[in-house]
Design a protein that fits this description.
This protein is α/β, with parallel strands linked by helices. The protein is built from ten helices and five strands. It has two domains: 149 residues, Rossmann fold (3-Layer(aba) Sandwich), CATH 3.40.50; 158 residues, no CATH class.
Length: 322
């Protein structure tokens, strides 16, 4: 994705700095290029020719318009107006930001440009307070959110559409027991499933521990007596073996049931907890889209969590023992 920043320079230097830094944060160096005069190299071309060359192929132009028209060329247009006209001609998306009151500036050329050309963009332009960098940052961020709404990792639909499709596919009965992935607005169900799985672990831990404790005691004396000839150790081992056999006889039905707990219940519950927890993490990063400034780091976090969840919920991994 390519961005081009257009404005007069000296009067809007600080505002331009905010715009460039925010574009870097939102897109990241790996996902976008940002053309702005601050980074232009020396060139034998005229300033207008070089700028138009940079503008050519841009996906979006950030137009920032204050109270100054700028120096005029031979045709009476400023470089900023030339860039605006070129963007319109090329069909380049323009996000325009106009300083409060700028359309009534004493600079009649700028007044005419804003009232006849920039205003023609209708709802695609926004106002900002030129003396409040924080307000401009907020307006720019919200505008970029709207523009990037369909961009993978920034859009609500880009997060959930694949998951909803997967849930629909897995919900089809193919005779194989599976965990059904969570879709939109199922946070409460995910929490309930985590609680249910935790209760399962709690309820079976005592039953499993009875046989496990006997096996541990026997293994302990075997390990302790390894390579050692001692009547004392031999007696301890015999006692442990006796207690082990006694416990198995007294708890045979529970111990047989432990096989199901360990080989079916535990793996199923662990899968359920992992799926529910990662679903809730996905919901959490989705909410960050609504409450935080967008950055490339946030986008990558969302894509990473979504990828892990889709892999966890996929047909190959969500089969449960029956």
């Amino acid at each position: 994705m390519r961005f081009f920043v257009s404005s007069t320079y000296e009067d809007l230097k600080k505002i331009r700095g905010v715009a460039i830094n925010m574009l870097k944060d939102i897109t990241g160096a790996k996902t976008a290029s940002i053309s702005a005069m601050e980074s232009f190299p020396a060139s034998p071309s005229s300033s207008s020719a070089f700028c138009l060359n940079q503008l050519d192929g841009a996906d979006i132009m950030i137009g920032i318009y204050g109270f100054r028209f700028g120096s005029k060329g031979e045709d009476g247009r400023s470089l900023t107006e030339i860039e605006f006209d070129e963007a319109v001609k090329n069909g380049t998306k323009i996000l325009a930001f106009v300083a409060d009151g700028a359309e009534y500036t004493q600079d009649t050329d700028q007044q005419h440009f804003l009232q006849t050309k920039v205003s023609s963009l209708g709802g695609v332009w926004a106002r900002f307070d030129p003396n409040n960098l924080g307000t401009f940052a907020t307006v720019l961020n919200e505008s970029l959110k709207n523009y990037l709404n369909g961009y993978e990792g920034y859009s609500y639909h880009s997060i959930w559409d694949d998951i909803i499709e997967l849930k629909h596919e897995i919900s089809k009965d193919d005779g194989i027991p599976r965990l059904i992935p969570y879709g939109e607005n199922e946070e409460e169900k995910a929490l309930d499933d985590i609680i249910e799985s935790a209760n399962f672990f709690s309820s079976v831990s005592e039953k499993v521990s009875i046989a496990n404790e006997c096996a541990y005691n026997l293994a302990y004396y075997y390990d302790l007596a390894d390579g050692t000839q001692s009547d004392e150790y031999d007696q301890e081992i015999k006692n442990a073996e006796y207690e082990m056999i006694k416990t198995v006889k007294e708890n045979s039905s529970n111990i047989c049931g432990n096989w199901e707990y360990l080989n079916i219940g535990y793996p199923n519950s662990i899968k359920a907890i992992l799926m529910a927890a990662n679903y809730l993490k996905l919901c959490y990063v989705q909410k960050k889209l609504l409450t935080e400034l967008w950055t490339e780091n946030l986008r990558q976090e969302i894509l990473s969590v979504k990828k892990f969840y889709l892999n966890l919920a996929g047909k190959e991994n969500n089969i449960i023992a029956d």
